[in-house]
């Protein structure tokens, strides 16, 4: 089995594939000032198995287009949506986030939790703006330095893995430079990483290794995930996901 199939198998049964939480999705919704009654069109980009899409479907009177390039994740999302009777509100679309099959100004809201880094924050906010209606809202979570200085080991790790990692003020500037007005920001708290994401993943490591005959490839994936978890635990005072809420501006 190739690495991608192994990663899909490790992550697809989880509630979420990155740090976050239902309460934090709701908090972002409140900061965005979105009406819960108005009929909204929402795109959730890099939706995974639907953590945020399902929360948004529960809370909003919205048509949600849930985009991911992995059909296996979208299949899980559909099963979860049916289980909750939310399938009428969510349309899964298998597409790449750098080639979205949408008309300009198709959405009131673009939502993306823990996923925009796949094409980079700068490119994502710039490319996706055209799909927002005038005055539409972007909500995206993005890896963020929480302090001006940080330990060299941590800096080196993320400079290699995701060179766009930066402070909140720098991310706000990217938003402003790309035609958005930032309207809200908060940091994901620790439970979004540990209780909601890493601990459930760790609980499946043994089962995952057994399902794959303890292969070298499967063990390499567990080791890489374990390394990232240890790094987070050691340096969680310096890094988190920032949640950025911004309105498409007229300029
Ligand atoms: N938003 C979900 C959550 O918070 O649980 C998933 C976050 S996961 C870290 C990133 C997601 O982005 C995965 O579901 C992955 O399949 C998807 N993804 C990665 N690259 C993509 C691309 N180029 N186009 C669309 N989806 C992509």
UniProtKB/TrEMBL annotation:
Annotated ranges, domain Methyltransferase: 42-136
Record keywords, A-Z: Methyltransferase, Transferase
Xref: Pfam families: Methyltransf_25 (PF13649)
Recorded superkingdom: Bacteria
InterPro entries membership: Methyltransf_25, SAM-dependent_MTases_sf
One MF term in the entry's GO annotations: methyltransferase activity
Gene Ontology biological process terms from the UniProt entry: methylation
Signal peptide residues on this chain, from the entry's feature table: none
Protein's UniProt name: Methyltransferase domain-containing protein
Annotated organism of origin: Marinobacter persicus
């Amino acid at each position: 089995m190739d690495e991608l199939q192994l990663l899909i198998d490790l992550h697809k049964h989880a509630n979420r594939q990155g740090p976050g939480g239902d309460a934090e999705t709701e908090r972002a919704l409140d900061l965005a000032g979105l009406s819960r009654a108005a009929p909204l069109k929402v795109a959730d980009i890099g939706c995974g198995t639907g953590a945020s899409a399902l929360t948004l479907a529960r809370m909003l009177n919205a048509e949600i287009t849930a985009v991911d390039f992995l059909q296996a994740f979208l299949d899980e999302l559909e099963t979860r949506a049916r289980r909750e009777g939310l399938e009428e509100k969510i349309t899964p679309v298998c597409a790449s986030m750098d080639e979205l099959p949408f008309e300009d100004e198709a959405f009131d809201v673009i939502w993306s939790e823990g996923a925009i880094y796949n094409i980079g924050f700068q490119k994502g906010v710039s490319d996706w703006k055209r799909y927002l209606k005038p005055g539409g809202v972007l909500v995206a979570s993005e890896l963020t330095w929480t302090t001006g200085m940080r330990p060299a080991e941590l800096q080196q790790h993320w400079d290699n893995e995701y060179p766009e990692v930066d402070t909140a003020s720098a991310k706000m500037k990217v938003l402003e430079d790309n035609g958005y007005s930032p309207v809200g920001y908060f940091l994901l708290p620790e439970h979004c990483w540990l209780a909601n994401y890493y601990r459930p993943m760790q609980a499946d490591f043994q089962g995952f290794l057994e399902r794959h005959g303890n292969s070298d490839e499967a063990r390499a994936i567990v080791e890489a995930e374990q390394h990232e978890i240890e790094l987070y635990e050691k340096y969680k005072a310096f890094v988190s996901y920032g949640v950025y809420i911004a309105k498409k501006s007229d300029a």
